[in-house]
Amino acid sequence: MTREVRTVVFDTGLQLEAYQFEGIMQKFPNHFHDYYVIGFIEQGKRHLVCNNEEYMLNSGDMIVFNPHDPHACEQVDGRTLDYRCINIQPEVMREYAREITGQDYLPRFRAPVLYQNELVSSLHELHLMILEEQSDFGKEELLLLLLEQLLRDNADAEPPLSSQDVTIEIKRLCEYIESHYMDSITLNELAELTGMSKYHLIRRFTRQKGISPYRYLETIRINHAKRLLEQGQLPIEVAAQTGFSDQSHFTNFFKKLIGLTPKQYRRIFNHEVDSKRLRDSVLR
């Protein structure tokens, strides 16, 4: 029996989430987040696909995802994964970038994987401080120094979307999905918007965005669901407001992408959990 532990803390001072997964085997399907993810592998070996590029991750490797970077990963060595990360909302990252550089911009990190990077030790120390709920300014100082080096060595100001520009038709589809995610969207509707066949729409969308139209829709729904759960709304209410057919579908997909159930995620931001902490242990 493997002991699976998922620990999540929201640090109100730093305004970021800290995740720790221990002993998990979960496969994460292709998806994206609307925030930055900075993390590292403690133990385990993972196959990662990010922005249509493949990577092999090992202990000590660092990952850096920009908002909307499509990515998927799975275990490849049959052993469990230990992983830590911090999640930073764009508006918070903008403030940190302004504090560090004096410029008002959203950074764009160039490489999603930094192999055996020296910053892993600093990130590990910062992560421990957050989980231990240290209240002095040591953790803020460490975060600023960590971000300063990442911004200096691995980031640019917001560049063009990609080496392969997104066409007007695909932009229109994204805007439509983002505006109608609560509705029951059909592939016929999307095809009519562009004049493309359904097959060519799927192929072109996936090639340009790195994620299929349906996965894009469900990821948009999950991102909105997180905000509603953070506000204290119940999972059954959130499922209805974000376009999922039923609560079971919502719960299953939420856990696939976030690593927690909606109920567990809601508890992080709910007064039921002191210090905005969730620790959930499962025997498998």
TrEMBL record:
The lineage of its organism: Bacteria, Bacillati, Bacillota, Bacilli, Bacillales. One of its GO terms (molecular function) is sequence-specific DNA binding. CDD domains: cupin_YbfI-like_N. It comes from the Bacteria. Keywords: DNA-binding, Transcription, Transcription regulation. Residues 171-268 form the HTH araC/xylS-type domain. PANTHER family: HTH-TYPE TRANSCRIPTIONAL ACTIVATOR RHAS-RELATED, TRANSCRIPTIONAL REGULATORY PROTEIN. This is AraC family transcriptional regulator.
